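Worked Example 4.2. Consider the chain below.
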Amino acid sequence: MIYLDYQATTPVASEVAEAMAPWIADKFANPHAPSRWGREAAAAIEVGRDQVQRAIGLPGGRVAFTGNATEALNWALKGTMERSSRKRIVTVATEHAAVLDTCDWLESKGFDVTRLPVGPDGLVSLHDVSNALNEDVAIVAVMLVNNEVGVIQPVGEIAKLAHDVGALMLCDAVQGLGRVDMPEGPDLVALSAHKIHGPKGIGALWMREGAEPEPLIHGGGQEMGLRSGTLSPALCVGFGAAAKLTSERRDADHAHIEQLRSAAITELGPDWTINGSVDRRYHGNLNIRREGLDAARLISDLRDMAFSLGSACASGSGRPSHVLRALGLSDREARSSIRLGFGRYTTEDELVSAVRRIVAAASEQQGLAA
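Applying the procedure from the previous section yields the following structure tokens:
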């Protein structure tokens, strides 16, 4: 199989699996227990926490481990609204479902939500952000790198605008960690291990001091008194190892991505259009469309390759991508779009071979339809 779905998940790095192995087998102690083995497990978690903190690169703050980034985003939004006297949330129409669905839920509880549009390039207007802000806004939630089209939002500038009215800034940096610069300014940052060659089942919420949300999960308060539940040393160690590796390999990964993207663009030729900004995007995400293409059929015809129609969370719904619709694409254009995601362990030969087959299958479709 040729794997081109890096936005859905990434292969676990061998270094990560090796780091996790002892904590899955022999070192099974509860990290919250007072025994020597428990303290050893707790110390390993703190090493992982520090590695994630270093990879984020923002000054101060602290990292709380969560079950996944969806939990982190729910916690940030619900917990912030619970502790704030303000009643409004501002977000963007192209956010992940973990943000948009949480905002829908909060709206049903009486909070006000403003969902800002994006242009055809997928970028939100800073003018629109500024106009939406006032002293009733508690939090502004904007993704750093869009999971479907790879567009990079001006998070640093948005954070400044939010702070000007006393609001907090939440950044979903799941697709951005280790891939693009983390801008200064966010007060809350949501992360996920399995998007950076780490294990599934663990995420994190970075919190600037004073911006900590009210707890979402209650119980023993094991995670700094802010989140309850027994932590998995294996998962925390794995997240830390993945974060450390991402920091160490960032330049090499970037150069590899640029080489892969150039090769893919050359092979695609002129019949394909890139969805979203061509310039302000992460180059390991290639969301493209071809006139008249049945993208779902294309995936079915190429079953020994892994690529997608958009987000893994929404691909099975049968509905056109809300992100592509927000860019102004018609249902037909959205259904003619595919997302190719590649990264550290993708070889150029694999990608070139895959793109050639995609082009050939798309051309065959058009030939049959003619």
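Residues 31 and 39 are 6 Å apart (CA to CA). The radius of gyration is 21 Å. Compare this with Example 4.1 before moving on.
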